[in-house]
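Session log. Operator J.P. requested a structure for one protein chain; no other inputs attached. Running the standard single-chain path with token output.
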Amino acid sequence: MSAAADRLAEAVARHQGGDLLGAVAAYKQLLRKDPDDATCQHLLGVALLQSRRIDEALAELRRATELAPAEPAFLNSLGAACRAAGQFAAAADCYRRALALDPDYAGAHANLGNVLLDAGDIAAARASLQRAVALDGTQAGWHYSLGLAAQRLGQTREAAGHYRQALAAQPDHVQALNNLGNLRSSAGNLMAALECFEKALARQPHFAAAQANRAGTLMRMGRLEEAGSAYKAALDLAPQDPGINRAYSIFLWRRGR
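Structure written below.
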């Protein structure tokens, strides 16, 4: 292994170890010696993105795609930076360019689906996410996103199935638990809904939405003292949340207080 390769390996080890500041410095030092190293350029952009230095990440990742325009992973990373900057159309364009190079790139299909969800193009998002999970059905986040898309399109059975698949892959996925609980509550299966919300709170006690949903379910079950305590706990977690405040006001009105 050459000295340059050794130094890159050291920089990557820092990066993988969570030393993002050290990794950025090491990548920059390497690029001063070899400005056309596309791999190092890409890794610099990724480290900057992970550091939430979005504008810098955009510039460095654009440079990486200029150095290696046929590398789909670099376009995928640039898409992630564009999405983080709120540039949804640009992000979608990056993911589509990556997929033109590699049509079976599951991560790019998933990322395209997520940015289309952000942009409100739900049907197209669902199609992209379906392709992603067809290529790789093991990713909890992809099933969760597909569940969201299906739920927004009114496909509640499909949504519930994907939330369950997300939980099979990642049992502590609290958003999937919360959303599955909401679907079960809407279907009138209150005990199953309550179980979902309580599992979510066992894993993330400060999850205000799950606490509020638990409160609403307890209210519908007639367990009013518990519901009142749950609403107060939710408000302690998110005192300015308009939805929780409104739900608690309705609860108090119904109790005649």
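Operator note: The first helix runs from residue 3 to 16.
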